[in-house]
Amino acid sequence: MRFVITFLLCLLLTGCTVERIHYDIIVTEVPVGMDVLNSAYNDCNASLLFPADSTEIQFSSDRNSPGVEMALFGSTLAFTYYEDHNVLNLSVSGSVNEKPGASCGDNEPSLMGDFKVFAIETEGRYDLWYTKKYDNTWLEPIRLNPPVNSLYNEYNPFLFKVLGHELMVFSSDRPGGKGGYDLYIVKIGNYLN
Q1: E-state strands within the chain
Q2: Would you list the domain boundaries of the chain?
């Protein structure tokens, strides 16, 4: 019997509509581009908000002023878990909206419980590293393995949990994206254990 859990995520942002979208991706341990949100410009600093009956994805982009000014954008997400296939599906639908007056944030570490992910510049590029807290002490940081890190920059991680799955959204300028920095999503639970 197919058991489907649907978690509807809504976003209420004021501002101009950039484009109408609907897109489905399967989230795995291999980073997947969130191409429907990405543009040919820099898209980074994703975060998710979980107000009462909704979840909002917000991210920074310079798509309206390339190379000049970052602005905050957002959209609607829905996650569906198909238990009989062990598949977590992410749907993005609605409009990509700009939130006027907001700007791009810095590269902050992302925390989830006793687990922290952050970017460190090494060997001329940024890679994502993680650490765990044990007895109120953060352990020595460990670089995340490929395919999360690549030979390019990985930056701006954001950890969250939905439908029992630990996920991370991050920015990367790796090949195969739409240009500049693009947003990627990956299951991160294996690193939490």
Answers
A1: 4-8, 17-27, 32-33, 43-49, 56-61, 71-82, 87-99, 110-112, 115-122, 125-134, 137-138, 142-143, 154-162, 165-172, 182-187
A2: 4-105+156-192
